[in-house]
Amino acid sequence: MSITALTLTNPGAELGNVTGWTLRAGDSSRFSAQALDPHSGTYRFLYRFSSVFSQVQFDQEIDVSAYSAVIDADTAAVRGLNWGATGGSSSISFYVQAYDTSHVQLASWSTDSYASGSYVSKPLTKALPIGTRYVRIGVTGGRLSSTDVAVWDDFSLEISDNRHTDYPGIFEPQVQQAIVYAVGGQTADDTKTHQAPILATVAAETSSGDFKVYGYQFFAYALVKKHGDKRKLRAWTFPQDDHKFYVLQLGNSNGTLIYDQLTQQWAAWKSADEVYWRGEDGCDWEGFNVCCDTLTGKIFKIDPVGRLDYNDTTDTEDTPITSIVVGGTTERFRKNIPCYMAELAISEGQPPEGIDATTVGISLLSRDTLVAYDHGSVLGTTTGDRVTVRWYGLGLMGSPGRVFEITDTGYARRIDGLNIEVGDQNGSQ
Length: 429
Known about the structure:
Elements: E1 3-5, E2 22-25, E3 31-34, E4 44-48, E5 55-63, H1 68-72, E6 77-86, E7 91-99, E8 105-110, E9 120-121, E10 124-127, E11 134-142, E12 149-160, H2 163-166, E13 174-175, E14 178-183, E15 214-215, E16 218-223, E17 232-240, E18 243-250, E19 256-260, E20 265-269, E21 281-285, E22 288-293, E23 298-301, E24 308-311, E25 316-320, E26 322-330, E27 336-349, E28 361-367, E29 372-379, E30 384-398, E31 401-409, E32 412-422
Parallel strand pairs: 13-15, 14-16
Antiparallel strand pairs: 1-12, 2-5, 3-4, 4-12, 5-11, 6-9, 6-10, 6-12, 7-8, 7-11, 17-18, 18-19, 19-20, 21-22, 22-23, 24-25, 26-31, 27-30, 27-32, 28-29, 28-31
């Protein structure tokens, strides 16, 4: 990946003449180098118009066949630049042109007119078409109302072998995700389409022109008159703390499953008063993971640190986040094993700022095949790391075993693990 400055002959008129430049329109006696007010160095180019509507065009051609490999791989670009100024109402523009080996023009690009008065730069950065072997850089234009002059200085031309990296933000925007909507009058039962025959076209505007846009992922929705479950079979990913999370939206009835690819753990997420999580789709935006809720039209930030969620009613973050962790142990046959204690290790416990600490905390529930046992709650009034919470006297665990359900309401940053102290069938530890 490199940018190379191409060698121009007499790019700043420093030879004291116009050697190296081809006058394609105009009077050669009026085209010269002038030792007066150059942009840099000693000389500048000058054209003195002879009359109203007289024209000038001059350029220099550069052989770029040495770069044919990257040009024909469709990765090359050129950047041309010069400095110019006009007087009165002259209209002069800077141009770059691409030609093939037979000097057939493949592309031509030009700027708007130079401003009257002081020097301004007119850069052009363009993708070179496949087959380009020559590039011309020059100026063209004329005088519109009366005799006057135009001046130029310091032409330059460079070529890049990888426009995507060397000239960032200029060429071929790459669309990572495009959404296409099809509006129809079918009922919900008629819209179970697995592959929608929709042609999607995308376009992009850059600082230097319009270029090809590549689409890598397309989604199609069918919007229908009858209410449907549009969260059905939606999937997207987001990164957080070097973990990659995979979101599976299984519908308004079946909820949302989250898979952590690093730990290979599954979780079920849901929003308040819903069986699913409202993050229907998301992306990385300036370093933040954001997701959208199409029911309300709101954009939410996924915050891995905060313990409070957004409240639609108050329009503030004042709702403690509830997390549930489930694990279990198995027992065989007709054994009844006593469980003396359950000890929960928390990496950091802290009541959310501005929230009554007595409204947050951790509770423990255990279940067998017949009964659910509520072992009580611990209020989140303690702040600190390596917090330990214990529940005593959890009763006898019989076949087929016991499931433990830990519910955290806005208190723990991370739960490290749950240990249980059990005895044997005779009650010994």
